[in-house]
């Protein structure tokens, strides 16, 4: 006979499953420091202060001096202006019945417009030449005041010349054309206000003292240094953008804007020429203004700064007893509570503020400057390849001359940028490997 049926006790409850616990160190198993839920209150150890990041000595890479750089940038801007006029006013001088023996119809070009463009594009080169001459005459103690007076005098002379040229240009065009000539000056006021230093100086207009890095173990001092570097970097980026836009605008767009109504030209080719001027000028200016030595200063500050990663808690119970403090340096992987969120420290040494977008962006850009160099190198190579393809497919003489000149200029920029990329990639790869060996991760 079958045995009696067994009944299960309904009062029996399943064993509860304890949720996982994460300690205050993200890279350490929680079982080594904490007990599961339901046990006695664990003892939370104190955080060990992180060691200061070690920096590699950066090699001395050659950098063009300011006079040489302003000289070839002035030459590039004026030459590309002449090429744009060639695109517009080319002639058929090789035909036997041609009315002219010149390659361009110069009588269609407004001379006052040409003077206006040349004065605007060459102002910095003239200022640099004047400063070099004055430095040979006056002593070091008087150079600052002499340069200030020279800037004022040069600014007054430049303003008078531009105003006279603008007055004569408006005599032959509508009044609305004056807005096209003055548009970059409105952008200048928006970027720099009424300060005339960036009108003549490219780098050292904000402060005569170059930015420096101090290996500090004070979190407020690190954040203050990073904020100063961010301001300096933003000023340099504004200078790069304004100069590259100004060169492309006056060298490429203004000749097309003031072209005669009877002139027919290739609009696509002229627009492409403006784009080439902007990209070439932007990359060349960024190489000079944001040099390897300058980027390495920002990189060293980024290593001291670190960043924070916000954790999505979800159903995981985080046992965190550390609250973020502004005067504390946090080690890698430390978990802190800031506001209603929990953050995990990233970087060998962390002095950043959780949730600060500006500091996080600074760290992501300059923790390895090779990425930005690689992006500029890719853009320049892409433009050079496009220009080579256009050169191969071109059959018109003025297009061949235009592309050949810009290509030779881009070859020089490509050489400098590729050299900087190789040096930066080698240095920061060795530095990253060294940090991994020191921290054993």
TrEMBL record:
GO cellular component, one term: membrane
Location of the protein in the cell: Membrane
InterPro entries in alphabetical order: Uncharacterised_TMEM39
Primary location class: membrane
Domain of life of the native organism: Eukaryota
Membrane topology qualifier: Multi-pass membrane protein
Keyword Transmembrane attached: yes
Homology family: Belongs to the TMEM39 family.
Official protein name in the record: Transmembrane protein 39A
Organism of origin: Phyllotreta striolata
Top-level taxonomy: Eukaryota, Metazoa, Ecdysozoa, Arthropoda, Hexapoda
